[in-house]
Amino acid sequence: MICTSAFSTGNDYPSVRLVIHLKTPLEMTELIQAQGRGGRDEEAARCYILPSKSAPKLLIGRSEPDHKGMWHAHDHVYVYGLKRCLRYGSTLYIDGRGTKCRDDPSNELCSVCKEDPRHDPSRVKATPLQQHTQALAKLGQRPGSSIQQQSTSVKRTIDQVGEEQNSFATAFEKAKKFRTDRLDESSKQVQRMRKALNKLKDRGCALCFCMGNDKGRRGHTIHQCPSFRHVGMTWGEYKDWKMSIKYKHHDTICWKCHVPTCSDEMHLPLVKGVMNCEWPDTVTPLALGIFQQNDLREAAERYFGKTWLHLEAFTMWLEKRPQVGHHSNIMDLLLWYVEVWMGQEQ
User: Fold this and answer.
1) What is the chain's mean pLDDT, rounded?
2) Domain check: are 287 and 164 in the same one?
3) CB atoms < 10 A from the CB of 30, how many?
4) Residue 158 has pLDDT above 50, yes or no
5) 149 shares its domain with 213
6) What share of the chain is helix, strand, coil (3-state, %, to 5)?
């Protein structure tokens, strides 16, 4: 498939194994977006740049605001090029500080780091433009070079291209089915969470209901909840604990009710200063009640294969990255309580 750079944003096909930039990318943002389309299934993918021999003329000066990283892309290819870790150049633009390929053992090595096991990109000095252009030309002529191999690999006969059309069509249909299945699964997950939350909402105060306080679970707000004395907390201590839960590896979650937005299917759009929570005091009060009761906590520990010796360990588990396709551990805990525990009680 041959396409323009506009194809990159939003393309979520999982099985893209190869991304080739023909001619120099004009913007660093565009380059990173397009490269990010490769390996969406978390398998290794290859990304190549086949730059023009001469650098494109930029219409802005180096001192002017460069929101798209045009000069950074220029320097990435024509000034540093194959002398500096490619990951370092990309992350330097994104994060303001470069990340080396060898900073994490799980990282795929770029072509520069593969060639030089002792490579330190932070010590690489800029190469004059003319020298680097000559180096690119020599690399393309060298037998066995990656650029020469790339040029050879893309030369196909008409018959070969025709044979590959069927395989591309198969991959396209597979990717389409993957996306459809994922959306369908997401919709089912939203319905499950809504059903569970509404079921708890009908029971009144979630903390009182969980603690078995049937008489006092209606007619009060969470800061007046009489069950706090049973869990050994004051309202202020509960509020501090709730505020301490941070979701660093999740999609958007409302900080007040801890319900995932699911692209606004579960929660109205989050607007600063406006709380549109449908279940404002359900998720965290229930989680606290589960932890504070020995029988509930032990049953949950068996179900999730965890051991929470203290509240800090429990909180750390709530913050951890959830399973693939799930939204948060705290929502999985709520679903377990409604679908499994309450089902057993009934």
Assistant:
1) 83
2) no
3) 19
4) no
5) no
6) 50, 5, 45
Residues 33-49: pLDDT tens digits?
A: 888 888 888 888 888 88
Q: pLDDT band at 10, cuts 50/70/90?
A: low
Domain count, the chain: 2
Cα(187)–Cα(214) distance, integer angstroms? 33
Q: What is the pTM of this model?
A: 0.54
The verdict on 165 and 128 lying in the same domain is yes
Distance CA 222, CA 154 (A): 65
User: Where is 199: in which H helix or E strand?
Assistant: helix 158-201
Q: In sequence order, what are the residues at sequence separation of 6 or more whose Cβ sits closer than 8 angstroms to the Cβ of residue 320?
A: 249, 329
Quote the crossing angle between the two packed helices 329-336 and 158-201, to the nearest 10°: 60
Q: Above 50 in pLDDT, residue 163?
A: yes
Q: How far is it, in rounded angstroms, from Cα 7 to Cα 268?
A: 30
Range of the domain at 164: 5-171
Q: Which amino acid belongs to residue 237? A: E
Is the same domain home to 204 and 75? no
Q: Clarify whether residues 159 and 255 are in a common domain.
A: no
Name which of 198, 220, 190 is nearest 207 in CA terms.
220
DSSP per residue over 254-308, as a string? -TTT--B-TTTTSSPPPBTTB---SSTTSHHHHHHHHHHSHHHHHHHHHHHT---
**Strand, helix or coil for residue 128:** coil
Q: In terms of domains, do 33 and 162 share one?
A: yes
Tokens of 206: 């979630």
The predicted structure's pLDDT at residue 126:
75
